From TrEMBL:
Function in brief: Catalyzes the Claisen rearrangement of chorismate to prephenate and the decarboxylation/dehydration of prephenate to phenylpyruvate.
Pathway(s) per entry: Metabolic intermediate biosynthesis; prephenate biosynthesis; prephenate from chorismate: step 1/1; Amino-acid biosynthesis; L-phenylalanine biosynthesis; phenylpyruvate from prephenate: step 1/1
Record keyword Lyase present: yes
Protein name: Bifunctional chorismate mutase/prephenate dehydratase
Domain Chorismate mutase intervals: 10-102
Keyword Nucleotidyltransferase set for record: no
Record field: catalytic activity: chorismate = prephenate; prephenate + H(+) = 3-phenylpyruvate + CO2 + H2O
Native organism: Microbulbifer yueqingensis
Single annotated GO MF: chorismate mutase activity
InterPro entries associated with the record: ACT-like_dom_sf, ACT_dom, Chor_mutase/pphenate_deHydtase, Chorismate_II_sf, CM_dom_sf, CM_II_prokaryot, G/b/e-P-prot_chorismate_mutase, Preph_deHydtase
Amino acid sequence: MSQDMPEKTADAEARLSGLRERIDGIDAKIAALISARAECALEVAEVKKATGGDALYYRPEREAQVLRRAMERNAGPLTDEEMARLFREIMSACLALEEPVKVAYLGPEGTFTQQAALKHFGHSAESRPLAAIDEVFREVEAGAVSYGVVPVENSTEGVINHTLDNFMHSNLHICGEVELRIHHHLMISDITRADAITRIYSHAQSLAQCRKWLDAHYPNVERVAVASNAEAAKRVKGEWNSAAIAGDMAAELYGLKVLAEKIEDRPDNSTRFLIIGPEQVPASGDDKTSLMVSMRNEPGALHDLLAPFQEHGIDLTRVETRPSQSGNWTYVFFIDFVGHRDSGNVAAALKEVGARAADLKVLGSYPRGVL
């Protein structure tokens, strides 16, 4: 052994000791600043209560602005997404001191929708799993919760029609959006015989998103569609010959072993979720708007619908068609575009579309997803 090894070890230990002391000092400053922010949050709550009426504690546009600034100020080495996630949790904890946000989501626990709810509202929100999209809408409409989280489209399988259909008879507004990268894993329980799997459970969309992988690795295994990936994970717990396709949260929640990671056919697989609530959201500076439009059944109707957006320089991000519930062979268009309903060019375009349409309903203007 070289004689200078003890000296190098001593130098490394001294350096580590100094770095640890520095980290302890930084941690103390961070804790003090978080406490100061929490005190400010409590003062905000007092001011809002003093004004009387129904004070809005959660402000989607304000939160979006804070997160954008956090990412703009980020100098690394943490990624913008990690920095925003940390700020989201700080804001969530501070908001809980004012008034905890109650959120309903399409359950059960362990679903991607729950993951989207936590990503948007943080872990200090009070979340409630519900069995169906209809129930999420009803709970928010009844005032039992402040907001709901529902899936609306997947990059591989397209729109969630049931969510769009609920907007046809609901007065709720879209208050925000969340985009979540979806990674599917094949998982088994502690009693599963990995070499004897004859059945794989998952949600129908998840099975579809992993079709090619399943064809290549388990071509002769029965694929059973269930209500959710969390339900799939539950079933596997009691069966020695079955596996489930689900996400990280389900594996952790139900104590399953991941047999194969990221088995989705498309690496860019993602799902978009909507935040629904009772109030309209003011402009945040980077917004989207969603519409529901019924057109008269006549030649050129689609052109008449889309022309005002082009004329006013508005970027359409999605156009979907659903059969109308008011009559045969009539259709409703769901349209997303960049901009807030209160901005000049958007207001002008909406006025022109409204004059040409049989019915126009603005589902909401809301901050674009910041992560």
